Every structure is written in C-alpha cells, then in structure tokens.
Amino acid sequence: MRNKVTTLDEFIIQKQQDFPFASGDLSSLLRDIGLAAKIINREINKAGLVDILGSTGTTNVQDEEVQKLDDFANNQLIFSLKAGGDCCGIASEENDDFVPCNPSGKYIVTMDPLDGSSNIDVNVSIGTIFSIYRRISEVGTGVETADFLQKGKEQVAAGYVIYGSSTMLVYSTGNGVNGFTLDPSIGEFCLSHKDIKTPENGKYYSINQGYRSKFSKGLNEYLDYCQGFSDEKIKPLGLRYIGSMVADVHRNLIKGGIFIYPSMQGNPKGKLRLVYECNPLSYLVEQAGGKATDAKQRILELQPTELHERTPVYLGSKKMVEKAEEYINKKK
Ligand code: AHG
Ligand code: MN
Ligand code: MN
Asked: Quick check: helix, strand or coil at residue 256?
C-alpha cells in the first residue's frame, strides 16, 4: 500500500478552501503554470536526444542569444496561461513588451521562462521563475504597462521550477513556502518540502567571484570575510555558484546561504532583472524567513520603471545578508 501523497493540484484546491469567497482564478492559474512546467520538463529531459539544444540564432531585447529551449519554455507558458483564461497579460524575459491575454482575467504574470540558459547545453540545473500580481487596470479592458510595474511587495504569488537532479516546483501565496517534487512515474508534483524555512545563518556564499576586480572595496572586504581573511575571523564559508540563479537560490533556501549579484564597474545595476527574477525570488526568500535587498533597500520595495530593468541583489539567510550590507555600507 502506498503512503498518501498530496499532489500539487490537491494542495492548491485544499488551500483554496481556506478562502471560501475566492473565485478560484488564482488556483487555476497556478495549475496552468504547473502543467506548463511538466511539459517544459519533458522537453528538457530529452534535450540531448533531439535537435533542440543550442541557439535559435536570434537575440532577445537584452542582446542575449536566445536558446531553443528558452523559446520553447516561453511559448509553452504563454500557451498554457492564455488557454487557462485567468491571466490578462504576461511580461517575459523573452518578449520586448508584455503579451496581452484575456481582458477579463484578473491577474498578470511576469516570468523568466528558462533561467540559466548558459547551462542548458551542459546538463546543469536550470529553472523557470514566475510571479503573479492582481492587475491594477480595470477588468475587461486591455492590460497596461503599469500593471507590470508594481512593487514586488504587491505579489500575490510567486514561485520557481528547478529542473535539477529531480524537478521541483516551489511556490508561495504569501502564507509560507511549499515545495513539490515531480514523480515522473505518475507525472505529478507531490508535496515533499512542507513550509520551508530558511536557516538564519548558512555555510554557503554564492557569487561570481571571477568579476572581483570590478567589485566595490566594501564587497571585496566582505568576500575576504567569507574566506576567513578579515580581522573578524570566521570559519571560511563554502563557495557555491552554479550560474543558474534558481538553482543557487534553491540550494541556499534549503541549506542556508547568501546569493549575490552585485553592482560592478561597467554594470552599476548588476545583471539580474527586477520584475521577473529578483522580485519573485525575494518574495519566496522573505516568505521562508530570509532577507533580500539591493544592499540599501528591500528588493520588494523597489519601484520598477521598466519591464527589463536590472538591480543588484543580495538574498538568502537573514544574518548573512545583514553582514554583507554591513561591509558594503561601511563608512570609509
Ligand atoms: P538567464 O539564463 O535567464 O539569462 O539568467 C542567467 C542569469 C542567472 O540565472 C545567473 O545567476 C546569472 O545569469 C549568471 O551570470 P554570470 O555568468 O554573469 O555569473
Ligand atoms: Mn534568468
Ligand atoms: Mn531566462
């Protein structure tokens, strides 16, 4: 006899019962994303077998090479969200402007359909990141850019899918974080990580240290601290950097750690995008008890001014983020 498992769909329905007056639109939107994730996962798993690896030969709005799987994931999510009908518009890393959907939908979605593109061809973990907001424009009309430029603290749900040694969907609707592992034998995401809480302190720091010559003095001093070189002696931390934000943040969320993509010479706003990378992951990290800032302000308080804008980001275990801020903001 098998143990009772809770599937993602069952869990979403159970949670919806906590809100008897809710319409269920958010629940069905989350299920649409779950379904698209399974289809993307199927394609990623056979990526080495079919002619799907590599570049499409085009570039996106940020002049980055678009991978075939980036396109596939983007199309799949847009298809699923449009078919579901609860979403009135989507902002995606892969589209210059937002994609209008059903005008009578109440929610907008922002997403990074495939995060960690440079890892696709080499069998390293990649992810999907999404975030959901209530629209501010009137239901029944077309969506507007302002719907997508809401502060991260207005998110009603956010999550990610990690396509790793197993595939997991982790999400929050503002009441803690839960993780579901895909059981490929039954094709269902099953509740495996209930109410994830991130440790206050951790053993890992994650940053592309190769760019050290471009970092600020304060950040380099913090890195010395992490490595045990600073006057403030600690047992050196472990450096873990996958190069897929989802995978780095997922590991740190579970084990405790800090993820940093900082401002640097030539890139004062870093690399990562506020609306569909930093906001959703910051929301999840906060929901799990961690902290997310740009070294000065809470990420979720930043006012986005354009869909694809970037921000420096420091997120993870609360005490580690606070320590990093201390070094970065140290008076010279
Ligand atoms: P994407 O594949 O969606 O463009 O995101 C890649 C991002 C992020 O996942 C990762 O943390 C970062 O790029 C790595 O950048 P560096 O190679 O500059 O460290
Ligand atoms: Mn990304
Ligand atoms: Mn991407």
From this structure: coil
Determine how many CB atoms are found less than 10 A away from the CB of residue 210: 8
Q: pLDDT tens across 177-224, in order?
A: 999 999 999 999 999 999 999 999 999 999 999 999 999 999 999 999
Q: Give the number of the ligand closest to the Cα of residue 118.
A: 1
Q: Is the dihedral of CA 58, 64, 68, 73 positive or negative?
A: negative
What's the gap in Å between 256 CA and the centre of ligand 3? 24
Could you tell me if 178 and 218 lie in one domain?
Answer: no
Give the span between the Cα atoms of 86 and 200, in whole angstroms. Answer: 37
**Residue 238's domain spans which residues?**
204-328
Q: Report if pTM > 0.85.
A: yes
The total number of structural domains that make up the chain: 2
**Ligand minimally distant from the alpha carbon of residue 70:** 3
- Confidence bin at 285 (pLDDT 50/70/90): very high
Task: Let me know whether 238 and 276 are in one domain.
Answer: yes
How many angstroms separate the alpha carbon of residue 217 from the centre of ligand 3?
30
175-186: pLDDT as tens digits = 999 999 999 999
